[in-house]
Amino acid sequence: xxxxxxxxxxxxxxxxxxxxxxxxxxxxxxxxxxxxxxxxxxxxxxxxxxxxxxxxxxxxxxxxxxxxxxxxxxxxxxxxxxxxxxxxxxxxxxxxxxxxxxxxxxxxxxxxxxxxxxxxxxxxxxxxxxxxxxxxxxxxxxxxxxxxxxxxxxxxxxxxxxxxxxxxxxxxxxxxxxxxxxxxxxxxxxxxxxxxxxxxxxx
Length: 203
Description:
203 residues; 6-stranded mixed beta sheet; Nuclear Transport Factor 2, Chain: A; 6 strands; single chain; alpha+beta
């Protein structure tokens, strides 16, 4: 069996708990997947984990529908630090120009973990956005997207950003995608984290 398997299982369990507890609105348990200095980045939010919990809860209570589905995980482990990559989809339902749609974005969660006080928790979560699509919930509905607005957004999360912009969010435009210098910099940060960097944002 692979060395450190108990630690790897604990990391993967935390990744799973993040999705389950966040999507279920189990906010007190969701808080436990983060270290106190945890940081979350998404298309529509960048900031401390505690603030992310607050705005997610507010959106949940108002009916914002964002759900997550997880696939396989890979964990790189070095002492009391780890980097986990997990295949995932983000699914959001909302009305765009009067038509209710589902957007599904496929990618990976890239998580910086630390073991403190015997607990593996997230220090930084950075999604990688690989591809997405938008479909009307009613297949008979007609949806015409604004091509100029759509073209403003990166290919990996173009439709997700379009939907979120239409419902009032401001979108970060330089997030990691499947290829390119931004995702390569993220990988470098992950390697540096495992090697003892003082910050999950430094390489």
